[in-house]
Amino acid sequence: MQFTAKQISELLSGTVVGDENVQVAELSKIEDGKPGSLCFLSNPKYENYLYTTAASVVIVGADFVPSQSVNCALIKVKDPYSAFSVLLDKYKEVTSQTANRSGIEQPSFIHPSAKIGKNVYIGAFAYISEFVEIGDNTKVYPHVFIGDHSKVGEDCILLPGVKIYNRSVLGKRIIIHSNTVIGSDGFGFAPQADGTYTKIAQIGNVIIEDDVEVGSNTSIDRATMGSTFIRKGVKLDNLIQIAHNVDVGAHTVVAAQTGISGSTKLGGNSVIGGQVGIAGHLTLAKGTQIGAQAGLNFNITEENKQWHGSPAQPLRNWMRASVIFKQLPTLEQRIVQLEAKLKELSLLNNNK
Q1: Residue range 104-314, CATH number
Q2: 290 touches 326 (CB < 8 A)
Q3: 281 is known as an active-site residue
Q4: What local confidence, expressed as pLDDT, does residue 96 receive?
Q5: pLDDT (mean) for 71-79
Q6: Which of 143, 177, 244, 308 is catalytic?
Q7: Average pLDDT over residues 3-20
Q8: Which CATH code for domain 3-95?
Q9: For residue 330, what is the enclosing H or E element?
Q10: pLDDT, mean of residues 197-203
Q11: What is the mean pLDDT of residues 235-252?
Q12: Contact (CB, 8 A) for 244 and 202
């Protein structure tokens, strides 16, 4: 399908500079733009591509002024990145082969006690256990398992291979990517006198609030007692471990390969980088930002503060320490030289 620059600008509440009738049929990166494509410019580092791109339309900021002539139409919007994300969603709706799936495919199993809403899609080999509730317009793709007494709200998407253990509660507009496990047992074992371990029953559940997205191959453990909480608007990357009784605050984002130990509470609007390790029973203030590969084993009480390193420390301290780390080989060499000189002076004094 083709759209004119004018039609796109109306969708985005933007303004066209140039030919408003030029047409585009696909989206592209600005450095790879070609005739008939639309791209966006939000990072100043990529501005040079604007003057060489073959794209027909480029989305730019409302206050952007080109320093050279351009060969494409510009659509000026308040936030180019957000505007382009809107177009990506629309493009996906038009081009996706699975977006409009509906109905119940066979073979699949739905327990007679389960309540299935309107316009629900259930793919082949899905298993819906007893007393499960699934809200309207939700899509359950092939090989998904939903355990007994679980609830899945409206407009959710459970992609192939997702496993939802019993009594889990999912809100509305949740997306869970393939092979993620929700509600597996927390890591609870009691050490015994003979050196063995006895499993502690995990009788709680997982509650995921509205507008959450969880990447593939992520595990969110059920609580030992009570609930593990993933609050509204949280975005979890692939390959993340969320342990029992963790509470991830609203609109927090967590990058891949992060592990959060049991009973830790993350304040809302926090940002956690990749491969971060967070110890258990901690409380992190609202707006906490933790850099990649950091290790955290203490509470954070000050809001909106950046932490880096392992063990984690305030960003400014970490940057200073990083400079010293790079100088350690030189400093070591100087210390060796000084020790040798001191030894030499000591020998001279002893011989006097």
Answers
A1: 2.160.10.10
A2: no
A3: no
A4: 62
A5: 95
A6: 244
A7: 94
A8: 3.40.1390.10
A9: helix 315-350
A10: 96
A11: 98
A12: yes
